[in-house]
Request: fold
Amino acid sequence: MVWKKYCHPISGLYDAVYIKIIKGRKNMEIQENRIITRIETLAAFNMTPGNGITRFSYSDQDRLARNYIEQQCSLMGISVQTDPLGNIRARYNGQDNSLPPVWIGSHIDSVRNGGKYDGVVGVISALEVLNVLYENQITPLRPVELVIFAEEEGSNFGTTMIGSKAIVGKCDEEYLKQLTAETGHTAYEMIQSFGLAPEHLEQCRIKKGQIHAMIEMHVEQGAVLDRKGLTIGVVQAVAGMRTYRIEITGESNHAGATPMNMRHDPMTAAAELICDVEKYAQAEVYETTVATVGEIACIPNASNVIPQKIQFSVDIRDVQEDGIESMADYLRCRCTQLACERGVSITIHEIGSSKCIHLSPRITGLIEDVTRQKKLPYQCMNSGAVHDSAMLTEITDVGMIFVPSVNGKSHNPQEYTESTDIKHGAEVLLETVCRLMMEK
Reply:
């Protein structure tokens, strides 16, 4: 074993940082087959076999996936802890466990009928990093922890990243009691039924300085890397988002007996508003603004009845806060106008938000340096999707590594990432972690 003094790529100055270079140890290589086997194993814990992956947080499938990860960690003698909200921390001990750990990981919950790679690639690649350290009997200066965030997707309650919000103190008991699933149960009740302790939510909180750094590897969920033939995306910023629930109430009546000029139809009002949202986003001065209507409900939902009520979501995202605000202002204004024009009642409720996040230049520079040294084709880029690690920028330095999504497919059964790309991403993750875990 040789110790090499490490020159930080950003400052150009020698820090008190040392990297172990292991010569002649083939096991320092990422094991591609092991990663893919584990991804396929997690994919079996699924509510919708044959129709994508459906694994909601706090479900039976989630419990099976958690048990599998814990079992894999136990083979390395790694202890696993679960906080009161369900966030998992698996610690690989360092020489000095009093030092703040390096966090690596992502999430294992999914959207309904989603893909097998979203979140899971980051978790399994992080687990592989621990495997490589363990097999080579490497003891880092500081601990390295695999972290799995609970309820990232928001599939249960319509709002994302509950687990990471709890970690940074942006989630309290009252908030959990207000969030409701389709079953009618609150988040608080579901978490409690899963065997967790939301009444001790404050124990989830991590304060600034208690984590050395956070690195999340993730599939891009867009087509940029795939279309350009690139292997790695070095993420510089993560889009902020704001989610609204719109409710348009009209007058339910007979579909055949009500003349067109006597209708107060919430469905046609909703159709107009949805198209207006799309047009405004397309014409926005901020090219990075996107807006999506992805969920809609019609009451009473009968072919021969003019609806009484339409409910739908509007998801606004941008890497610039002004872009989100501009789109939100337009939405509120257009709702007021449309209610008058069509003789309906429109209410708008904000149900979730997160701010635009710029990741740590120090960590981003380190990831870029590692990628360049490995001669992997890459580009620096932004993330249009929100991620748990972005929430942690308030308490630590954060970096993200993207690997390509074939044809940009994500959140559907066609989601796919080449195994070689996952391996290369894991190699960048491993080298980045090796540098960070030896920092004093």
Q: What stands out?
A: The chain has twelve helices and 18 strands.
